[in-house]
Amino acid sequence: MKQAEPDFRVLEYVTITKDPRTDLVVAIGGTEKSAAILQRTGGFLSAPGPRGDYHRLPHGLPIEQQRVKATAASHALLAAGHSVHLDPALNMLAVPPDGEREAALRYLADLAGRATVATTSSEVAEVLTEVAAPVDGLLPLAREVIVRSWITAGELQGPTPSEDLDPIGRLGDTADSLTAATHAILRARNHAASQAPQPAPTSPLPNCAPAASRRRRR
């Protein structure tokens, strides 16, 4: 006996892309359910079009906000079972060329900003932890890069001059210096983390002399 094929409910395809003429982020296709998801999770607005209503993000949004909202909406649609095409230029999770380097530079700038505006020792300690954490801190990771480069470059180069004149060989000394710097920063981090919060300064009370002393004698 031949079995009948199951009846699948296929939701309409949704395309989220940027219109090249207007630079608006638009969502085309979908159902009423997908329209509700677009509005709720991405802040899309309903707009009339020549082939029926479509959805778009508000005018004037910065590019980063466009990407955040488009990515959030696409993942909410996927989680609800809709088929979605998201323009790669709008995908926050896609790494563009040189994107990792740009993200690293933003991360370093953010750490510097956090150190600048810190108001407590614990906030300073959090920044120093990012720099010198034993496994994934910035300095231990940089040391790992230098050590691997030292080993590889040493294997690739030919006969070396004396140790004092060998710049590749001195990378080992640089790695040791980074280790010492990491330990010093961790000690500073531990000291900052152990400091008790300082109470906010209070304004001195006004000089309230007795009223009788302020009266003028007749």
Strand and helix map with partners:
Layout: E1 14-18, E2 25-29, H1 32-42, E3 45-47, E4 54-56, H2 63-79, E5 84-86, H3 99-117, H4 121-132, H5 138-156, H6 171-194, H7 211-214
Parallel strand pairs: 1-5
Antiparallel strand pairs: 1-2, 2-4, 3-4
Helix pairs in contact: 1-2, 3-4, 4-6, 5-6
The number of helical segments is 7
**What spatial form do the alpha-carbon principal axes imply?**
elongated
The radius of gyration is: 31 Å
Oligomeric assembly: single chain
Mean pLDDT: 81
Number of strands: 5
Strand content: 5-15%
Briefly note the structural class of the backbone.
Answer: alpha+beta
Most strands sheet: 5 strands, mixed
Strand line-up in the sheet with most strands: 3-4-2-1-5
Explain the overall architecture.
It is a single chain. With 218 residues, the chain is an alpha+beta fold. Helices cover 49% and strands 9% of the residues. It is built from seven helices and five strands. A five-stranded mixed sheet has the order 3-4-2-1-5, with helices on one face. Helix 5 packs antiparallel against helix 6. The relative contact order is 0.08. The model is unreliable at 210-214 (pLDDT under 50).
